[in-house]
Design brief:
The structure holds two protein chains of two kinds. By secondary structure, chain A is mainly alpha-helical. Chain A has 14 helices and two strands. Chain B has one domain: Orthogonal Bundle (ABC transporter involved in vitamin B12 uptake, BtuC), CATH 1.10.3470. The chains are: A mainly alpha, B mainly alpha. At the A-B interface, helix 4, helix 5, helix 11 and helix 13 of A face helix 3, helix 8 and helix 10 of B.
Chain lengths: 315, 289
C-alpha cells in the first residue's frame, strides 16, 4: 500500500512537471495547464475541509476571490510587487475566514453549508458594488503581474507562460506539501477522527470546534493562495470569482475526482477545466451542459473517479 | 424625507414578502427532506415564464391561478425522478444536484424565451397609483402584499389544520416514526416538495409583474431567502417569515441612507444573529439537520 502511494505520488509529480512539454501536442496550451493547477489547488484546499474533516463548505469562492482582489488591488494601488501582492491577498482571505469561522464553527451539515454560501455573497456584493475601487461588474483590470526578481535570476511570469507555469507549480507544491504533512500529523489524524465520528471524538476530549476552525482556516488560506495565482494568471480579478457558482465548481471538482483521496480533486480539476474549456468553445448553451454534468456526476459518480478505482482494487 | 423613508420601508416590505414566500418554500423542503434546493430560483423563473406564456390565452387571473400549479407539477416530477434518489445520502449530493438543475433551468429559459427582458402585462386597473401623496402605493404593489398575506395564511392553515399539514409537521420532527405509523413518507415528501415549489411559482408570477421577466429573475431572490431562513431559525416556519420581512425592511431602510450597502446589510444582520443566537431568532435549540 505504501509503495502504491509512493508510485502514485511519483506519477502525479512527473505528470505535472512535464506538462508544458506535452500539453501542446494534445491540443492544449501552457496557460491552460496553469489554470488546471490553480483550480486543483483550490479544490484540494477545499477538500482538506470537505474530505478530511467532513465539513461541507459551499462558500470557498469568497476566499478565492478575496485572494484575487487582494493581489490585484495591491499591485494596482499600493506597490508593484507580485510577492507582496500575494501576501496581502492570502492575509486578507485568511483573516476574513478567521472572523467568519468563529461565527459558523458551531453549525453542522446543511446549516453550515447554507451559512457559508450566504456569507460568501457579502464579498461578492462588495466587489460588485464598490465600483470606484474594484471596478464593479467589469472586474478589476488595469494591472498585471510583475516579474519576480529572485536575486540570481529574474522570473518573467508576465510574458513567459512556461515560467509562470513553474512558478504556479512551485506554489502548488509548497501548499500541497504542507497539507499532506498536516494530514499525517496528530492534528490531521484528529481531523479524520472528527470526520468519522464527531460525538466519539468529543467524548475522548478533542476540542472539536477548535479543530474545525483550524481546518477551515488552513483550507481558506490555501484557497486564497489559489485565488491570488488565478488573478495573476488572468491579470484580472473578476467578481464572478467570488460568487457561489465558483464555490460549486470547487465542490464538484473535489467530488468528481474523489473526495476521500488526496489527489482526487486534482483529477477532478483536470476533467472539469478541460470539459469547461471545450464546451464553452463549442456552444453558447454551455451552462446547460455544465448543469447536466453536475447532475450526472451526482447520480452516477458520487464516489468520483478515484473512488471507483479504489472499489475495484478492494473487490 | 419622511416620504422617502416610508417609500423605502414599504418597498422593503414588498421585497421582504417575496423573500418570505421563497424562503417558506425552501424551508418546507429543507425541514422535511434535508435538501437545500438551489434550483428554487429556477422554479420561480419557470413560474414567471409560464405565466407570461399563458396570459394571452387565459388572461392575467387565469395565469396567476394556473402557472404556480404547473410549476408545482414540474416540481413533483423533478422530485420523483431526481431528488428522491438522494434522500438519506450526504446533503452534499442534493446540493450539487440542485445546483446543476439551477444552471439547466436558467439556460433553458434563456433558450426558450430569450435573454432579453420581456414585458409582463398586468391588468390596467392595478397599475395606477392609489394616492397622489403616496405615489409609490400602486394598486399592483398593494395587491401583491395582500396576495402574499393570503398565501401565507393559507399555508399556515394547511399545515395547522389539515391531515397533510399535520403529517408534514410530524415528519419534520421525526420522519421515521411517522413512517412507522403507516404514512407513506415518499408521497409525503413528494407533496411537500410540490407545495414548496408552488410557493416559488407564485412568487415568480408576482415578481414578474414587478421586476419584468429575465432568465436570472430568481438569482437575486434566492440568496436573501437563505439568509431569511438562517436569521429566522432552522426548522421554524414563522421564523422564516419573520426573517424574510426583517431583511426586506432592513435593506429598504439601508437604501435610503447608504444605497451601495443595500445587499450587504442583510449578511451583516445574519452575522449578528449567528453571533448572539446561533440557532436563529425562533429556531429550536439543538436542532441538527
Amino acid at each position: 500500500m505504501d509503495l502504491n502511494k509512493r508510485t502514485a505520488d511519483a506519477i502525479v509529480w512527473l505528470f505535472l512537471l512535464t506538462m508544458p512539454v506535452w500539453i501542446n501536442w494534445i491540443g492544449g496550451y501552457t496557460s491552460l495547464g496553469s489554470r488546471v493547477i490553480v483550480l486543483a489547488l483550490a479544490a484540494m484546499s477545499l477538500n482538506f475541509l470537505l474530505g478530511f474533516t467532513g465539513v461541507l463548505s459551499f462558500g470557498h469562492a469568497a476566499y478565492f476571490g478575496l485572494g484575487a482582489y487582494g493581489v490585484g488591488l495591491t499591485i494596482k494601488y499600493l506597490c508593484a510587487s507580485t510577492p507582496l501582492g500575494m501576501l496581502v491577498g492570502v492575509v486578507v482571505g485568511t483573516l476574513a475566514a478567521a472572523v467568519i469561522g468563529v461565527l459558523i464553527v458551531r453549525l453542522r451539515g446543511v446549516y453550515f453549508a447554507m451559512v457559508t454560501i450566504a456569507f460568501g455573497q457579502v464579498f461578492y456584493f462588495i466587489a460588485y458594488r464598490w465600483n470606484a475601487v474594484t471596478g464593479g461588474d467589469d472586474g478589476l483590470s488595469g494591472w498585471h503581474s510583475i516579474p519576480i526578481n529572485l536575486g540570481f535570476a529574474k522570473l518573467d511570469i508576465l510574458n513567459d507562460p512556461i515560467a509562470f507555469y513553474y512558478f504556479v507549480l512551485a506554489c502548488f507544491a509548497v501548499a500541497v506539501g504542507v497539507m499532506a504533512l498536516l494530514l499525517r500529523s496528530p492534528f490531521g489524524r484528529t481531523l479524520l477522527a472528527i470526520r468519522e465520528n464527531e460525538r466519539r471524538a468529543r467524548f475522548i476530549g478533542i476540542p472539536v470546534e477548535q479543530h474545525i476552525w483550524l481546518s477551515w482556516l488552513v483550507s481558506c488560506l490555501f484557497v486564497s493562495l489559489a485565488g491570488t495565482l488565478y488573478a495573476l494568471l488572468n491579470n484580472f480579478a473578476d467578481p464572478h470569482d467570488l460568487r457561489w457558482d465558483q464555490s460549486g465548481y470547487f465542490v464538484i471538482m473535489a467530488v468528481l475526482g474523489g473526495m476521500r483521496s488526496f489527489w482526487g480533486p486534482l483529477i477532478g480539476a483536470v476533467i472539469f477545466v478541460v470539459l469547461q474549456n471545450y464546451v464553452s468553445g463549442q456552444t453558447e448553451n454551455w451552462m446547460s451542459f455544465i448543469g447536466l454534468f453536475f447532475v450526472l456526476v451526482v447520480l452516477f459518480f458520487p464516489r468520483g473517479v478515484l473512488g471507483i478505482f479504489r472499489r475495484r482494487i478492494i473487490s | 424625507m419622511t416620504q422617502l423613508i416610508l417609500y423605502n420601508v414599504f418597498n422593503g416590505l414588498i421585497i421582504g414578502a417575496f423573500y418570505a414566500l421563497m424562503a417558506l418554500g425552501l424551508s418546507l423542503i429543507l425541514n422535511l427532506s434535508g435538501v437545500i434546493n438551489f434550483a428554487h430560483g429556477g422554479f420561480l423563473a419557470i413560474g414567471a415564464y409560464l405565466a407570461y406564456t399563458l396570459i394571452p390565452y387565459i388572461g392575467f387571473w387565469g395565469a396567476l391561478a394556473m402557472a404556480p400549479v404547473l410549476t408545482a407539477v414540474i416540481g413533483l416530477l423533478v422530485e420523483r425522478v431526481l431528488i428522491r434518489r438522494l434522500y438519506g445520502r450526504d446533503p452534499l449530493y442534493s446540493l450539487l444536484l440542485t445546483f446543476g438543475l439551477a444552471f439547466m433551468i436558467e439556460d433553458g429559459t434563456r433558450y426558450i424565451w430569450g435573454a432579453q427582458t420581456l414585458p409582463f402585462s398586468i391588468p390596467d386597473w392595478l397599475t395606477g397609483s392609489l394616492s397622489s401623496n403616496l405615489f409609490f402605493l400602486t394598486g399592483y404593489r398593494l395587491f401583491m402584499v395582500l396576495l402574499v398575506v393570503v398565501a401565507v395564511i393559507a399555508l399556515f392553515l394547511v399545515l395547522d389544520r389539515t391531515r397533510l399539514g399535520m403529517r408534514i409537521r410530524a415528519g419534520i420532527n421525526d420522519l421515521e416514526t411517522v413512517s412507522t405509523l403507516g404514512v407513506n413518507t415518499r408521497i409525503l415528501r413528494n407533496l411537500n416538495f410540490g407545495l414548496g415549489i408552488y410557493l416559488a411559482g407564485l412568487a415568480g408570477v408576482l415578481a414578474a409583474g414587478m421586476l419584468g421577466l429575465q432568465p436570472t429573475i430568481g438569482n437575486d431572490l434566492i440568496m436573501p431567502s437563505f439568509v431569511a431562513i438562517i436569521i429566522g431559525g432552522l426548522g421554524s416556519l414563522p421564523g422564516t417569515l419573520l426573517g424574510g420581512l426583517l431583511i426586506g425592511v432592513a435593506s429598504g431602510v439601508t437604501a435610503v441612507f447608504f444605497p451601495s450597502a443595500t445587499e450587504a446589510v442583510i449578511y451583516v444582520m445574519m452575522g449578528l444573529v449567528l453571533l448572539v443566537r446561533p440557532r436563529g431568532l425562533l429556531g429550536e435549540e439543538g436542532r441538527v439537520l
